[in-house]
Amino acid sequence: MILIVLINSGVAVSAEQVQITGLTLYPEGIPGEIAHTPTEFQGRVVINDRSVVAVDSPELTMVAPPEDERNGTAVIILPGGGYERLAIDKEGFNVARRFAGAGVIAFVLKYRMPLKDIMDNPSYGPLQDAQQAISLVRQHAKEWGIDSDRVGVMGFSAGGHLAATLATQFKQPVNKAYTKKILRPDFQVLIYPVISMKEDVTHQGSRLNLLGESPDNRLISTFSAQDNVTTNTPQAFIVHANDDKAVPVGNALQYHAALVEKRVPVQMLLLPDGGHGFGMNHPTDWFSNMLEWMENYGVIAAQATNH
After folding, report:
1. What's the pTM?
2. CA 24 – CA 132 distance, rounded (Å)
3. Which of 1, 57, 101, 169 lies 20 to 30 A from 121 at CA?
4. Sign of the CA dihedral 155, 157, 159, 165?
5. pLDDT, tens digit, for every residue of 149-207?
6. What fold, for 2-304?
């Protein structure tokens, strides 16, 4: 493990230290791995807006407040990028630091891209990494000061698709050694998510990268989260902009309808504008709204948050 302490990280934290720890996702090797190729960070002009491409070595990074400020809640963050790249700062570490300011331990998952040259089952590779991440967090919950019954998942765009898949496919572990109890998130937060792999509403790039050019109907249905909602699907908070031209708002609407039909608690914030990929850079402070939802539904203790 590598421990780095950041001072004055620019987040409204009650203490000025945020602890960042790099964790080994697969201590005993990656199941189904074929080969490694170098992972490449691509920086943009905008500060704190890196993207990482061709991920073949998944990594989990813990971003935590000091031990005396942790409220027991944990969230695994899945950045987006169309299953081609990951917006690792804007939809990962920047969000994690704000969670730390609310006493929540966040884990940023750099999950593998579904590349056939590096794994034997590309469509399931990202889900395998997400399931491994939540199992790892629960295995170390006591050590890290986490309530194992308050571990959730958050995803942006294609990462939102992966989060919704984790929330609806926990009964189907990629690694058969896991139980559905350890894989089920206690809550899900989806920000402008891809939900469906069906032609009429999906994000075509995410579908092509994850499922390939000619997926069969079974695979399409498996990875269309709205088709897999049950009464045991975890409660949800969804944010989407009505004018999103990359990932149609119909994705969020279909998932919301499926959750309501199964009487799963869900709150959705539809923004009149904002397009796609705004992260936390939106005039509406959806993150504060999300924290209030987390308080109202017992995910975190009301007195512990720092908006």
Report:
1. 0.92
2. 11
3. 1
4. positive
5. 999 999 999 999 999 999 999 999 998 888 889 999 999 999 999 999 999 999 999 99
6. Rossmann fold (3.40.50)
Tokens of 61: 């990074």
The answer to whether 70 and 103 have CB atoms below 8 angstroms apart is yes
pLDDT for residue 40? 60
In Å, what is the CA distance from 94 to each residue of 23, 106, 108, 110?
A: 18, 11, 10, 14
Query: What is the C-alpha to C-alpha distance for residues 96 and 202, in angstroms, rounded to an integer?
Result: 27
- Looking at the DSSP bridge assignments, the partners of residue 76 are 107, 153
Binning the chain into helix, strand and coil, the percentages to the nearest 5 are 30, 20, 50
The amino acid at 299? V
**Listing from the earlier edge strand, what are the strands of the sheet with 51-53?**
40-42, 51-53, 85-86
- Exposure on the CB side of residue 237, measured as CA atoms within 13 A: 19
Nearest partner of 111 among 82, 150, 69, judged by Cα: 82
Contact 185, 74 (CB under 8 A): no
Residue range 26-43, pLDDT digits in tens: 998 898 888 766 566 665
Give the model confidence (pLDDT) of 248-297 as tens digits: 999 999 999 999 999 999 999 999 999 999 999 999 999 999 999 999 99
Domain-wise residue ranges, the chain:
2-304
